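README, section 4: Worked example with a bound small molecule

Sections 1 through 3 covered apo chains. Here we extend the same pipeline to holo records, where the ligand is supplied as SMILES alongside the sequence. The molecule in this example is adenosine-5'-triphosphate. Nothing else about the input changes; the structure line simply encodes the ligand pose together with the chain.
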Amino acid sequence: MKLNIKLPLLFLLMFVLIIVIGIPFIRFFVIGNLPVSQNKMKAKAAFESVKIANHIASLYPNMEKIDSYIKNTAKDEHISIQLYNHDLSKKMISYQNNNKAPMRINDIVPVQAKDNHVVFYLEIRRSMISSESLGLYILFPLLVLIGLAFMILTLYFHFNITKPIQVLNKRLKNVNIRGLTSFLSITRKDEIGELYNHFNEMEERLHLAQKEQIDMIAAIAHDLKTPLTSINGFVELLVMQKDLSENERQEYYELILKKSKHIGELINDFSAFTKNELELETMDMKAVEAARLFENIATEYEAELSGLGYELFWKHSFKPSQFMMMNEHMIGRVFGNLFSNAVRYGNQGNLTIYLSGFVQGSSVYFQVEDNGQGVPEKDMSSLFLKFFTVDKSRQTQNGGTGLGLASCKSIIERHGGEISAFHSPYGGLGIRFSVPLQHD
Ligand SMILES: Nc1ncnc2c1ncn2[C@@H]1O[C@H](COP(=O)(O)OP(=O)(O)OP(=O)(O)O)[C@@H](O)[C@H]1O
Ligand SMILES: [Mg+2]
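The generated complex, written as structure tokens:
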């Protein structure tokens, strides 16, 4: 059964239950006690009546004063007063109260003169509600109030829970990751608001993943097409031109070999990238000491780079007790990518690389900088996109596919850190990444 039927039914059931259980309860405890309080009221009224009679007796025989007293008392007390003669045969004074409620309590009190003989009879009527109708006066508004409260609750739940869920349901059914048109709009800050925001984020991520996939296929196709077109051209020349010299033939074969090797390298890069992404899903983390990791990396690459004739300067300010949770192998790949980029695109003639490490706030930072030609400002924000390369002509020569930094970004983000590029004061590119510091 759907929520928009279930909720009103539930409230109706609760309403009926309250009536069935609540009414006998009210009748027993509230109305059951009414006769007691009513008797008290009657006794009080009788006492008041005697007081009025005594006052009239004190004014006797001044009929004018008696008349004005009765008139004022009837008006002030909202009661009806009639004054009869000593044998009740004649009504002498009468003041009616125009109160609409039925007159229920009648007191007939004798008015005695000083010598104790009865001079008048006083009849006083007061309005009072019977216990049954008083019960109704209490019960009826109570039932209306409870009914109203349940109606408000039903409407509240409908507009605040059922309706937003229906809207979300409809949207989920028609999720469109190809063309993200508009987000579900919501200003609420409660759980439903959070649900909408998370849904919007999920839809955006799906859309981005879909776009990334399309871009990746387009980039792979583009990268493979260039060497393949060259191979096709050389093969066509070899097939069509029968009068080619042996030297020319040899040159074309070598070019074909070079281009097909390049295709092989590209394919290796693609599969390494996908492998990396898959490994990230299942990698296990260990506590690693920042200083130890840094020094291992620094000494390893210092030797490797000096073999190539380049220099590595390194410094860190880590303390022995600073640990990070990481997969050392994956973080090793990040350093590998950054050093290979510096060598590939840096200042080949006189390359110097600077490696530094420090702790700031609750993160451990590593920086790799070079004194190379760097990256133009306009390209800085695109460096971490898949297949992004700064200069295609420079690229062909160096053979990069533009997946290295994208891989680094995936690895660092999987560790809960951040990676960014900056213009290094040494002249070339600087890459800084962070990994959260482990707290005891
Ligand atoms: N240290 C650097 N100095 C100058 N340019 C750089 C440097 N590092 C990267 N780049 C530029 O950024 C681009 C992207 O680098 P990235 O590592 O992502 O890909 P790649 O090196 O081209 O290919 P891959 O790493 O997949 O083999 C490079 O093509 C290069 O143009
Ligand atoms: Mg690279």
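What to look for in the output: The first strand starts at residue 80 and ends at 85. DSSP finds eleven helices and eleven strands in the chain.

Section 5 describes how to batch many such records.
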